[in-house]
Amino acid sequence: MMPESFMDLAGVWIAALLSLCVFSFLFKDNILFKITEAIFVGVSVGYGIVLSWNAGLHPKVVVPFMEFIRNYHDKSRADFFWAAYMVVSLGIGVLYLSRFSPRQAWLSRFPMAYLMGIGIGIGMPLTIQSFIFEQMRATLIPIVVKTNGALDWAASLGNIALLAGVFSVLYYFFFSVKKSDPVSQTVSRVGIAYLMLGFGASFALTVMARISLLSARVQFLKDEWVEGTLRYFNLL
Amino acid sequence: MLGDVLTVWLQRCDAVVFDLDKLNVFVGLALVGAAIMLCVSHARRGGAVFIRAVPGLQAVDDALGRAAELGRPVVFTTGLYGVDDVATLAGLNILGHLASRSAHYDSDLMVPCANPVVMTVAQELVKERLTQAGYPERYRADNIYFITDEQFAYASAVCGLMQRERPAAAFYLGSFAAESLLLAEAGAGAGAIQVAGTADVSQIPFFIVACDYTLIGEELFAASAYLSRDALLLGSVKGQDMAKVLIMAALAAGVLLLCVDQLFGCHWGTWFASLFTVTEAL
Amino acid sequence: MLCIGCGIIMLLQFFVPLEFVQRDMLQWVNDSAIVVATFGLAIGLASLVHVHSTRIRRRARGWALSVVTLACATVVAVIGLLKSDWGPVVARSQRYDVLPNGVTAGVIEVTHTLFGYQTATVFTNTVTAAGVVPLQHRSVPMFDWFYNYIMYPLMSTVFALLAFYMMTAAYRAMRAKSWEAGLLLAAALIVLLGQVPVDQFVRLPAIDGVSLFEWLKLKILDYPNTAAKRSIIIGVALGGLATSIKILTGIEKPYLGGRG
Amino acid sequence: MMTLVLRWFDCNYRRVIYVLVVLCVLVPAFLTVRLRIKPAGATQGLYDAVEGIPAARRAAIAKLEAELTQSTNNHDKLTAHLQRLRMHTNGVLLISLDFDPSSAPELTPQAEIILRHAFMRGIPVVAVVVSTPVGAQLAQSIVDRAARETQGRYDIKLAGRDYVYLGYRPGYFNLILQMGEDISRAYATDYAGTPLHDLPMMQGIKNLNDIDLVAVVTGFVGVPETWIQVVKTKYNRPLGMGMTAVSVADYTPYLHSKQLVGLLPGMRGAAEYEMALDAPGAGTRGMLAQLASHVLIIVLIALGNALFFVQRRNRS
Lengths: 236, 282, 260, 316
Hints:
- The complex is a heterotetramer.
- Chain B is of the alpha/beta class.
- Helix content of chain B is about 60%, strand content about 10%.
- The model of chain B has no long low-confidence stretch (mean pLDDT about 85).
- Chain C has helices spanning about 1-15, 20-55, 65-80, 140-175, 180-195, 210-250; strands spanning about 90-100, 105-115, 120-130, 130-140, 205, 210.
- In chain C, about 50% of the residues are buried.
């Protein structure tokens, strides 16, 4: 890979040096990492501001609102409601600024409550639907499986193992039951066993993805930084 | 006659105000809600509720005490997400209880935030709790601050914070994504006692491996009840368990019906399973 | 109160089948949340500026870093918010795209503008005997350059630190201190062995057409992993619902400083 | 002496491990070793499907010709279809590169080797991105590079003639559904803005029926289901996939139920594919690093446990 222009070459060098500074943190916290961290935080905050304007507020609210004001005479009733709602939202948002005055700070609770209420309200039915119901439907499997009229041992045992796991883990999570008798203790333990096997497996499963990330960084340093620079100056 | 009227009426309703395809979700929500509210009202009338020990939470006091002894700060984070995320709200609830307890110790409670709204809620919460506990002067607004909402910029800033401030205890309670292990390993490197809890299934293994105590999934939501020992909150945990009993019963019934299907070739189980389908609007 | 009201309205809207409610109203609420959250961002920025400016004023340890942070944020924000035709061109370059057989396929012209938000690429296709040859004009705002050469490399490098941290975490904490930890360890080892082609180096029995460890890995993923995940998800959903109900009914009010 | 070393290691184990990890990843980056990996069934399935695209096209043409001679109804429609099929006698591959930079390290080698394979066999390629705007530029560079660096039936692979890159459009469910009916309804223009009817290659490709294999390389959950629903269930076209190692386990059932012709698991899938094609590349290099790191982590876990048990015995 060769940088296309001088700006790209400069960029690749900056990117490479910043990457090395981040890796230096592994050895020891040092001034280079501190500078990199400051740059990272700063740039990302700036980026966040630009994004929330250019990909959120501006196209979704400001542009339609301006358009509404310009052609308000041929707008439908729904559009009027929308505009009014936006003005109200603006009002709720402005209440946030009351935080800057110590005496009126309690007003800022309204926007917080408003955002929380919306989030919770939208979330509740979706939780039931996509978490509880979906998972329950997936768990509804028979413990006796027949294929072509004959008992399918492997499938049946597999289903039993799965169901035993789901029930015992659910039981492990019971909070208000005193689990002092040996039966419930055993069930809880089976639950923990399932949990631990599951966690160990997921941990190990992600190793590959993380190593690929590191490989990609190393590849970047080798291909684009070292080889790219050499190619740019026709040394390779 | 009455049936006809009802059907017509229901059909009309279907078109206007209520989506009958989603009736099952409504019933589910109502059942869970009823279970929780029943137990809460039972608790309000003075019914005692037992709640089992949650290992991570017993360590909270030790961790806070240790921080005070060493004169080092305590770091608390709720993760990347905003207040529309329930796990974040659960984390904030715990932050409230933690603030009440840490008030007696006078150790710095640092809350670096990745979401500005969470920051404002956290500030309000800690201030209120410290005032209730009688130490309003211990509230330092600068300790609860916004860093950035970018995942890895936030993670690197918190890693740096861990290395420089060397907190005695670190709490990660809320919603986390891939940054979970970055935070937890940086904290472990700084020698902090770490308590983590998240509802995000894919991040629990990392916390389990790297932290001293981990609240697994649902334990995060029960934590505020456990810490406060408040009767109403305990009641709601009981309600949660009741709802779980309902779900387990439904599962058991469904599995049995499906077995009957397999053995006798009928379709009761499939019908039962279809109760849990929701037609997705495309 | 507001919280309860909004919550219940949004909860009920889910069940109303009107197209207006299902599509437009959700959109509206989304827009409204964007407006309100923008003020939240303003508060967050105020907090950021306050923390850093206090540090700079007091000349606290590392105050120069605070200057760097604030400067970077300002520069990126200004560059991204201004329109691209307001500012000067920072750099201009031309490149001939040469194919492996030596034919010049086209000219790519790149300009870097100081201001602006998105890269604009204009293609002018010219048809020649060899087929379609693109002539490309690309205008890259510095904002985009910042993303490509500062933000993205930093994001992926910090993400890549996880490769190191996984190793240390595994070494430090994956020890068979108890039977639970032992199970976790065993599952992890089996899956690790199943992930890489071990059977190329060691002769292993094969089951169902895959090598032993891979078979074991699939079984662990199919049964314990799925069972654990499912129950956790169901539990978490219930816990979430309980917390939602507590907040909607005012048993817990985080925004009012807890109970009361 | 031994205790001294152990104590030193206990203090500095982090740095030692970090150096080892760097070695594990750095050394393979400079090596091109031919790993003796035997492609697993799932990988071989996708390889065979790509390899078999020209044959599948010939079969499809023959079947349609036979149908035309036998029946008379739908004559115009069938003739038009046959004409389109005859324009690309080598068949057509549709590839979707649905990943963003975070999963790109694992998935780029997969996409690259599938593209190279197609280009080597002279199979025209339609490339799309359906689920992430961020990935559009990335995907373009992958497709362009594969085209530039592959020597195939034609010396040079040209955009518009040998491959078409359509870019990203929002709303993936409807997008995929529309592609089944008419690709030009889903994508009016290609990524560069040229209308599809101006592209020579697209004359012979109207919808999914003119495509012999759909390959989806994706790092998102939910997107594969949609592809399966539309491509397999609705239009019954062959479908293969490439995924990150993490999400593969969730989709193996589709492989067993024969809804997918093949499934590449992460970096390993790419390496196996490269071996099947006998063209070691990024996947093989990556796999070498994976192998080394997996061995390292296993050794570290073993070492940690050994030290733990030794310490415990010493104490008791």
